[in-house]
């Protein structure tokens, strides 16, 4: 017999789980289907950095919506989250120039503040001594910035906790079940058909397996990243995600500033071997004290699974120099993969009742919940009230 739901979600990463949350918030029956037995995609391989502040355009809209949802999930779904903000370290005057221009561009009316009491500005410029007091870096700094509205989650815990919360609210999970085809009103899986009024396809880069023509039109490729978890022996904890000058070339609202062009020219000229790795030198600290270190970027229709030690060498050397510690002890290495496209998001409706959603640059943890809320809200309208309880969490078999 064909199982029947209002909404079928393909993919149990943060975007798919966000769609399931948006659907269950509207009183709909929902099934989430994933070929994996546990979260193993980009949503568990990232930094857990919810980097709302430097987003612009549509990414900023989704980021603003996501922030509220993440805070709610921390209260209701046992998602580990800290209201950390972000520290951006400027080691050179041209990096401080970008941050100063950014602070000026954001003015004093914080978009993140509603309901949050007295408003802090979105960007607080820091002197060198203030940076040194906040983060245990040894590198000389020209100053930096603090972005107080940003948050941090533990990527290894967030999806599991969210899935358990959704299961507690009646969402069905079909794991170790691959979707092989989608049509209006139905999904074909390796464990039989599922019928659903709405199908949300949230399979990240693997959209090219189910919808190759859409993926080609949107220029979707895979972006591979080299990542490490290390015991760095820092002299003090890292209380917030730490970005560097390299990060100022990546996020939309930094990279689009006129001063970022000169910074890019200098970094590429001074460090061609790091520029060739397409580096974003950044760090987050997990609750156990270990440090997530990254990252590099390489793109293609597929990415080589053979990670070059040269990239890890560079990341470890830079980490030692930045924090003034000997070469950190490596605890884990992994490769992350996400969809990379011509714009920041893929939002398509290839046929009635079928919606394709993906963050097509590396900001899906920051924006994915807001993206999914927008897409589901576009179909079903506003959410009904959400039960404010933590008692509903139920471990999902294979997701605990
Ligand atoms: C190394 C790295 C660091 C990052 N750092 C950050 C960060 O700090 N902050 C930030 O905002 N973003 C970051 N990102 C980006 C972010 O992690 C992604 O944008 C986001 O997790 C994508 O979520 P998703 O749900 O679309 O994809 P995934 O988490 O990859 O989930 C897709 C799911 O679809 C399933 N699937 C695929 N095909 C099928 C099929 N045919 N049938 C059934 N199931 C299928 C897969 O098994 C998978 O579980 C980073 C990404 C990486 C890789």
UniProtKB/TrEMBL annotation:
Coiled coil: none annotated. One of its GO terms (molecular function) is oxidoreductase activity. Its cofactor is FAD. InterPro entries: FAD-dep_OxRdtase (IPR006076), FAD-dependent_OxRdtase_HpnW (IPR017741), FAD/NAD-bd_sf (IPR036188). Keywords: Flavoprotein, Oxidoreductase. Pfam families: DAO. Belongs to the DadA oxidoreductase family. This is Oxidoreductase.
